[in-house]
Amino acid sequence: MDRFHLMNVFAAVAEEESFAAGARRLGMSPPAVTRSISALEARLGIQLLTRTTRYVRATDAGLRYLESTRRILAEVDEADEAAAGVHATPRGQLAITAPVMFGSMFVMPRVIDYLKQFPDVTISGLFLDRVVNLLEEGLDVGVRIGNLPDSSMRAISVGQVRRVVCAAPEYLAQNQEPAEPQELSRHTIIAAMPVSPATEWHFVRAKKPIKVRVQPRLTVTNNDAAIQAVLSGFGITRLMSYQIAGHLAAGRLKRILADYEAEPLPIHVLHREGRQASAKVRSFVDFLVERLRSDLALT
């Protein structure tokens, strides 16, 4: 059997974790899929899948082979699209990732606009507040906030954000606004774990670092909860500037200790460049970069 066909069948079964679901995805009969997997395992001399009456799972060797298979199949698709020409219409599956709140606020609206413009593309989004390895997880495009380590990925700068200390005007009307970080000890602190996982907040003044230990009265595990708490006038919190840009502009929150803010964090759009960038990846990256760069909340 054709090796690329066998790899495609294996990827479908491993990702669906089912022979029947893999067969439906490929438009094949379940017996034909079973024969293809058996032929591939015989060719390689290893077991790729563990089968029971209840589930199908990739073995350790199967997981390693699946990673390579995804990369090879993606490169074949990219080569086909490149051969069709740089102006080929984007089509196919696109997998993207971004931080949770940034993805909701800034990426998803652009995804919807892109899908409306290119009806032959489907997109799956993985929004997590952790660094995701694009290669290992089979993703095409990612958005990262923060300084980047050395990488084989192509990185395009689209803006920057800061960690911002803020409070509601109602809170500051009843509690004197802190003039320097050390005065935070006299205030009610709301800690958002994704932004400030430690109880030590870092500031900078005249290029000298300042560390202040805070004792939160309220600690929450997501940024939305911290925003709701600070909007209610309960206390002071620290969030990313893009998360509260609208509230700052509307006067619902006030930025404090701005002179002590650390250097801004860059935002990059990453993608696996490969030998030829596929039409779908190229067009989506260009689309996303243009729109993020024009957003004033990210300047």
Measured as a percent range, the helix fraction is 25-40%
Q: What is the count of distinct domains?
A: 3
Supply the CATH architecture of the largest domain.
Answer: 3-Layer(aba) Sandwich
Put simply, the count of helices is 9
Determine the CATH superfamily of the largest domain: Periplasmic binding protein-like II
Might you state the CATH topology name of the largest domain? D-Maltodextrin-Binding Protein, domain 2
Largest sheet: 5 strands, mixed
Number of strands: 14
Principal-axis shape equals elongated
**Whole-number average pLDDT?**
89
CATH uppermost class of the largest domain: Alpha Beta
| Beta-strand proportion | 15-25%
The unreliable regions are: none
**SS content category:** alpha/beta
Describe the protein:
This protein has 299 residues and is of the alpha/beta class. It has 3 domains: 3-83, Arc Repressor Mutant, subunit A (Orthogonal Bundle); 92-158 and 265-298, D-Maltodextrin-Binding Protein, domain 2; 163-260, D-Maltodextrin-Binding Protein, domain 2 (3-Layer(aba) Sandwich). Helix content is 38%, strand content 24%. The strands form 4 sheets. Strands 4-3-5-14-6 form a 5-stranded mixed beta sheet, with helices on one face. A 5-stranded mixed beta sheet has the order 11-8-12-7-13. 31% of the residues are buried. The model has no long low-confidence stretch (mean pLDDT 89).
